[in-house]
Design brief:
The structure holds two protein chains of two kinds.
Chain A: E1 2-7, E2 10-12, E3 18-19, E4 26-27, E5 33-35, H1 37-53, E6 55-62, H2 68-77, E7 81-85, H3 95-112, E8 117-121, H4 132-140, E9 143-155, E10 160-167, E11 170-177, E12 180-184, H5 196-204, E13 208-210, H6 250-263
Parallel strand pairs in A: 1-6, 1-8, 6-7, 7-13, 8-12, 9-12
Antiparallel strand pairs in A: 2-5, 3-4, 9-10, 10-11
Helix pairs in contact in A: 2-5, 3-4
Chain B: E1 3-10, H1 14-25, E2 30-33, E3 48-50, H2 51-57, E4 69-79, E5 84-90, E6 101-103, H3 106-119, E7 123-125, E8 130-136, E9 139-145, E10 151-159, H4 166-170, E11 183-192, H5 195-201, E12 209-216, E13 224-230, E14 234-242, H6 243-249, H7 253-261, H8 264-270, E15 274-284, E16 295-296, E17 299-301, H9 317-337, H10 342-345, H11 347-354, H12 356-363, H13 367-373, H14 380-393, H15 400-414, H16 417-431
Parallel strand pairs in B: 1-2, 1-10, 2-7, 4-12, 10-17
Antiparallel strand pairs in B: 3-6, 4-5, 4-6, 8-9, 9-10, 11-14, 11-15, 12-13, 13-14, 16-17
Helix pairs in contact in B: 1-3, 1-9, 2-9, 9-11, 14-15
Classes of the chains: A alpha/beta, B alpha/beta.
């Protein structure tokens, strides 16, 4: 029986986010919120492990009350319960404070039943930091397995998990001691299409909310006060100047291209 | 074992949601299926929402619903390629309560309306297509959703599935296939502009809105209209024309929209705007004569699926909401008897017939066919009126009496007196 926790984040649909050219900040107003796509794969992975080994999946999110929606999605995907950490005191938390609060929540869950595995997406598509997962692992003292693209085996008796990590141009097969925290990439699985009863169950489920008083927290480590990171500036990268199209019949155009690349010392002259 | 609800509603647009809100408030177990990611994500309309019918569903909705601007002015432009004859009405009484109409963006408004249904107790299931109906002999007893274990049994099903009404066909209420004479295709662009610019260009006080309907060259003379509506910080600009005329003229709707946007009367209104969204949708414009059978054993049809669109007055969402409301009322009455057979659902059609919905559509029942057969109303007449206005307004020392004669000669050169008399007579019969 595996006790698993999946951390999910509600993010703005980046396909629809624009950057305000005057203030250089993200225009989030009116932009639909979605589950962080990597987190969806994390939920899927946990649910599949549950089907294989038995156990329980708890979806965990921190955010405003609207974040309920992503927890419902996790429930629809097969999570057994959902907990939303929501409190004004959490607002403004950077990755340090966020990983602290999430780790505390997982510790609280571990006091009920020890948690074997925690899943996170490799990063959130809004901040792109990829820090919260590793932050939680470090705080909990869990084995840290990032960029997982496959889970080969879990052995509860021996107390290990074997995963494949996606590295640039190669993969690393690695075995780690439980409890462990995995951050996952999209290659890990294909999301299943939910059944109607699962969707209905999720829509009707009640979502537990915890505020700061439900957790044993040091007020100095949460919210803005607990967040040493400050954003200096966010800016859109300068628009790339338009390229150049070399006209002409293919052979001649290729010759022109080669000559130009040689001249620019991008390729060697032979 | 199949899931079971009292009422299944297919489609979370104005018709389906009006029905859902009414039923859920009466304590009926309702499930609504929406194929889009959320209500409004697949729905398109020009963007005018009417206050009165909306208030019959949610009183005082304008205090909290996401609306764009109250419409204080409506303009009608008759375009030729380089000129416009304009007509309009503006009233400050429309600027405050009780209001008449608002511009809206459906992606936001429908989502809000759906929240009201959910708050009332309806169950909303998004991203799920209803693929078929469940039958027992000659009665509909539920639906089959396109998901594993997707069968849902129900006492009665409301089809509010929109213009592409496949289930209404499957229910045997409507003939199969698409009739291009009965469907218009509309394309629309949402163009971002700073609010001050909108207010300056359209002569509006802060927060107020206006609508422009354009005929003639706006649709390249095809049966249909174009529109420009002011939102908070964007404009909705679109063209809707009958599918059959597009086919006949071998044009595609995008070209029409580009044609409109580059018209000298329109171009300056849009200058500097940034295109944010592009949408296209079918509009059922068959009118009264194309309305399907509106009910059967265990099934009712509402909104666009029932062809309840008044193309002449560009009304649709109000007819949809009213039909949804009346479908719900019919169901509540049938529920008391515990019998949802066609005989008990027949009052739905009677109530619609007593309301403005069918009365308006009946009034214009000849219009779709008439204008389709007489395209000169959208081609020749705008030209003639425009030329007449130019002649009359050009000051060149020609006596006014002579000008009137010239205008008359120009008109009768194109259309004989008998034809003109006939046009006038038929126009009056169709529209009067």
């Amino acid at each position: 029986m595996l006790q698993m926790v999946v951390c999910v984040k509600q993010v703005p649909d980046t396909a629809e986010v624009r950057i305000d050219p005057r203030t250089n900040t993200l225009v989030r107003a009116g932009v639909p919120a979605i589950i962080n796509p990597f987190d969806a794969h994390a939920v899927e992975a946990a649910v599949r492990l549950k089907e294989k080994y038995g156990g329980r999946v708890t979806a965990l999110s921190m955010g405003p009350l609207q974040a309920e929606e992503v927890l419902r999605r996790a429930l629809g995907m097969g999570a057994d319960r959902a907990i939303l950490l929501t409190d004004r005191a959490f607002a403004g938390s950077d990755t340090l404070a966020t990983s602290y609060i999430l780790a505390r929540a997982i510790e609280a869950l571990s006091r009920e039943t020890p948690v074997d595995l925690v899943f996170c997406g490799k990063q959130a598509i809004d901040g792109d930091t990829a820090q919260v997962g590793p932050g939680i692992a470090t705080r909990l003292g869990f084995t840290q397995l990032t960029y997982c693209m496959a889970i080969d085996a879990v052995d509860l008796e021996q107390g290990y998990i074997q995963v494949q990590r996606k590295l640039e141009g190669k993969r690393e097969i690695i075995r780690g001691r439980l409890p462990a925290l995995l951050t996952v990439v999209k290659d890990l699985n294909e999301l299943s299409y939910l059944s109607l009863p699962a969707l209905i169950r999720a829509a009707l489920a009640t979502i537990t909310t915890w505020n700061k008083d439900n957790l044993d927290l040091d007020p100095a480590q949460i919210g803005l006060k607990g967040s040493p990171t400050s954003v200096r500036r966010i800016f859109a990268p300068p628009a790339r100047p338009g390229g150049e199209i070399i006209p002409g019949e293919p052979r001649a155009a290729a010759a022109t291209l080669v000559a130009r690349l040689v001249q620019m010392k991008i390729i060697a002259d032979k | 074992m199949a899931l079971r609800f009292e009422v299944v509603i297919v489609g979370a647009g104005p018709a389906g949601l009006a029905a859902a809100i009414t039923l859920a408030r009466a304590g009926v177990e309702v499930i609504i299926f929406e194929r889009g990611e959320h209500p409004g994500s697949k729905n398109v309309m020009g963007g005018v929402l009417y206050r009165h019918p909306t208030e019959t569903i949610v009183p005082r909705f304008y205090q909290e619903a996401p609306l764009e601007r109250p419409v204080v002015e409506q303009r009608l432009w008759l375009l030729t390629d380089e000129a416009a004859l304009t007509l309009g009405y503006k009233s400050m009484t429309f600027a405050g309560e009780p209001y008449n109409a608002f511009t809206v963006l459906r992606a936001r408004f429908d989502r809000w309306l759906a929240e009201q249904a959910v708050a009332a107790g309806a169950l909303l299931i998004n991203e799920t297509v209803v693929e078929d109906l469940l039958w027992e002999k000659d009665r509909v007893v539920g639906v089959r959703a396109g998901r594993a274990e997707g069968d849902v049994r129900a006492e009665v099903v409301i089809l509010a599935e929109g213009a592409n009404s496949l289930l209404t066909q499957k229910a045997g209420l409507k003939k199969d296939g698409i009739n291009t004479n009965q469907l218009a295709v509309a394309v629309k662009e949402i163009i971002a502009l700073p609010r001050e610019k909108i207010e300056d260009r359209f002569n509006l006080e802060e927060g107020q809105g206006c609508t422009i309907e354009l005929l003639g060259d706006a649709t390249k003379g095809m049966m249909g209209t174009a529109f420009i509506y002011t939102n908070k910080d964007s404009l909705s600009v679109g063209v809707g024309v009958l599918l059959s005329s597009l086919v006949r003229r071998r044009l595609n709707p995008n070209d029409l929209l580009e044609h409109l946007k580059s018209h000298p009367m329109v171009r300056r209104l849009l200058t500097g705007g940034e295109s944010k969204e592009y949408q296209g949708h079918l509009i059922p414009e068959g009118g009264y004569r194309a309305i399907p059978k509106l009910y059967g054993n265990g099934v009712l049809v509402a909104g666009d699926a029932a062809m309840l669109v008044n193309g002449i007055h560009r009304e649709g969402s109000n007819l949809a909401m009213t039909s949804g409301l009346l479908a719900a009322k019919t169901i509540l009455a049938a529920r008391e008897k515990g019998d949802y057979s066609a005989a008990n659902l027949a009052p739905y059609r009677e109530m619609l017939a007593e309301s403005f919905v069918l009365q308006d559509l009946q009034k214009y029942q000849r219009a779709p066919f008439f204008f389709d057969q007489n395209p000169h109303f959208f081609t020749l007449y705008p030209q003639l009126l425009s030329r007449a206005a130019r002649e009359f307004l050009t000051v060149d020392n020609v006596p006014k009496g002579e000008k009137q004669k010239r205008i008359w000669r120009e008109i009768t050169a194109e259309r004989s007196r008998i034809q003109l008399a006939g046009d006038l007579y038929h126009f009056w019969r169709v529209m009067g």
